Amino acid sequence: MSSVLRPAIPEPVTYRPISDHLAIAPPVSVVIPAMNEAENLPYVFKTLPGWIHEVVLVDGNSTDDTVAVARELWPDVKVVPQQGKGKGDALITGFEACTGDIIVMVDADGSADGHEIVSYVSALVSGADFAKGSRFANGGGTDDMTLIRKLGNWALCTTVNRKFGARYTDLCYGYNAFWRHCLDEIDLDCTGFEVETLMNIRVVKAGLKVQEIPSHEYLRIHGASNLRAVRDGLRVLKVILKERSNRRALRRRSHATTLTAGRGESS
Asked: Is 62 in contact with 36 (CB distance < 8 Å)?
């Protein structure tokens, strides 16, 4: 008696409703770098949508109850110890721990509204590779920037737009989302607050499709920020100059390779 091979039945795809008009299959991971943010986490977690796949809390050696509070608020939270000291190190550590296809970056100080995540995810499933939050796009805003910081952000953003052909309205903002595959294209290698700038530059250099998402930044609720405008502004400028220099070097190498190939063909 011959046996008949039947085609395998694919497993049913689970869709997560994220709004009244949209449901998605890709799992979404939210990365929250935190150091001594126990008082702020309740405000952060209460705005996170219930349909996200996982929350990854990167603990920067907190000396308060940050980890305990996170586990109480979100029992399935994945807590990973930070490798290194700066925000860049924390985010890289968190990204490596994610299992979702979409990754969302959210600060732990209560300045970001988790309800906005649906806008970021909607942009990604609609075709964008990188959904970049902007406090200065139409519909965005900020309660937490001094005039000096606004001027500095504008100057640095203008520089990036001119040097790399971007069209950003904001540069130094930590609320972003992207498909996991983007990490292979941008290869992050910085440690501090300049990490957002590096990401924004490298997604442009990689030719990825970027969509800005209007976002409102609220005041930090408790505690003081580790951000230092002058010090970190200089670090951001250093990253811009380094990436510009690397781009020129790559262009020179590409031109030299083309000339060499041309000589070989003509000989």
From this structure: yes
